Please model this.
Amino acid sequence: MKILVTGAGGFIGAAVSQYLINRGDEVVGIDNLNDYYDVNLKYARLASLQGSNAASLFSFTEMGVEERDKMASLFKEHKFDRVVHLAAQAGVRYSLENPSAYIDSNVVGFGNILEGCRYNNVEHLVYASSSSVYGANEKMPFSENDNVDLPVSLYAATKKANELMAHTYSYLYNLPTTGLLFFTVYGPWGRPDMALFKFTKAILEGETIKVFNYGNHRRDFTYIDDIVEGVVRSLDKVATANENWDGANPDPSSSKAPYKVYNIGAQTPVHLLKFIETLEDALGVEAKKELLPMQPGDVPDTYADVSSLVKDTGYKPSTDVKTGVKAFVDWYRGFYDIKA
Model:
């Protein structure tokens, strides 16, 4: 298949691209390579892809999804079979500082993706939503069958908007779409703005780490290899209409249109302080901690019910936090040439 992967220089995008080219798919990657975090890490991910044994199956163009004319030309030129849309302005906290970046990339950009799919007969669009959409919900574990109408950050609101926009195109144009609600993804090549990366850097440099909500957060930390497996399994299972869908008792995760939404997580939430202990063990260094109150836009707990994804695709997360954190630490030391 010929597959477009947006956000190919990103953490998940690069890993998904590698998996797809390894199995023989032709991948066209795009990314705007913005400086939200160290762009050199994005270049390094792309270099790894372009230097792999299957490099002839991967091509890359620097481009933002919000660039309407360029996106239209890209779709028209390549006639993709399927699309994995992972490009987005990420980060809950940054959305409080620069909201326009989220509107441009996550809303306008997603509209361009939908239009490209609509006019070029794309077989299936898989796109990234987020566990952040659960917002003020307190029922655990989070289920795709629950309504999520109370976001607590603009980032979350844009991801909910993506789900609504996708359903509209599925309904109006019979475009199969699958949304994946990612729960805290970690592992080698991870993002520097996320807790594991920030904590590792600070601890190794002898700095104090900021632990919000006094360490009482629980997060459904999900290892990158497990995430990639779920993304590809979802891509291979084209969304179909739910003929049993009942408008009098609507299920938000499906529709009479070819539309589906899945949680994708580990289904094993871990307390933040326990996660930090695991990191300390992997590093062999005790962290200096500053315990702080909850930050605006954050939620205390995330916990994924992934039974629907397991049932429909055979998804099975298998990497425990101890193994995953050690793999990240080994990568970090190697990438930044830090001796144990």
The radius of gyration is 19 Å. Residues 88 and 304 are 21 Å apart (CA to CA). Residues 99-119 form the longest helix (21 residues). The first strand starts at residue 2 and ends at 6.
